[in-house]
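We treat protein structure as text, and this decision shapes the records that our systems exchange. The remainder of this section carries one protein's record, kept here as part of the documentation:
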Amino acid sequence: MVESIAELQKICHNNARFTDRPWWYRLYRATSIRFTRLILLSGIKINPNHITLLEVIMGISGSLLLLSSNILVLIIGFVFLFAAYLFDCMDGELARYYQEFSSAGSYLDEVGHAIVDPLLFTVLALTLYFQSPSTIVMIMGFLTAFLIRFIKANFQLSSFIFVKEVTSSPETFLHLPETEKTSEKKTKSILDIPILFANSIKHYVITVFIFMLAYTLDYLKGVNAVIPFFDYKLIVLVFYSLFLSAVALAQIIVNLKTIEQEKMSLFHKVQEAIRR
């Protein structure tokens, strides 16, 4: 017998209520858990990695479909893109339910994000280039594609540096004294709030929604005189190229001040886990 939605949420969401997350994230989670339950009710055991692979395929396919000028193809493309994030939620839920955690699955998930996120901006730039060839447009497209990955990598830098230093010089960490949690409190920065806001704006779902809005307005301006005649896709590309550049610069400044502290915080978490 398959558990109820409430019981599945406890199992698959680790009792998290996501009250600190935006409404659209909670909506996605409420939807994904119901699709996960449908899979469980079917009696067919699906490997979570297969859901991850489907997520990657949907994301890539949806991005490429945005190159079309056909409104029906564009709608299918955006459906694929939004569905990809639904599968991104479902693969983790199935993994927690079956207690089948795979490094290959995590790797495939990261590979998918590394492809789809930059591909969205590359496709946007190519769409604009095909309409009116411009070197500046292509430069902005490649810049945003690079920055969207650079920014995400910056969020993971403390973990990367910690692993790199532990594997290259393990003796350095073996002789460090154990430190209480109170000393690991992260230093506040004036840039923390803007970066947190930026992280929300650059989120995959919000980015896809903004893209959909731009594509919709560009389509409607040709059939409805009320819509101002702007190049909405170009506005989105210019906005993201400037916005992500500012975020990347802010991240570099913050990381230079806090990277050592975050690295040591990871070390102390490992110490605590070993003690347990």
In short: The longest helix spans residues 232-275. Residues 180-184 have pLDDT under 50 and may be disordered.
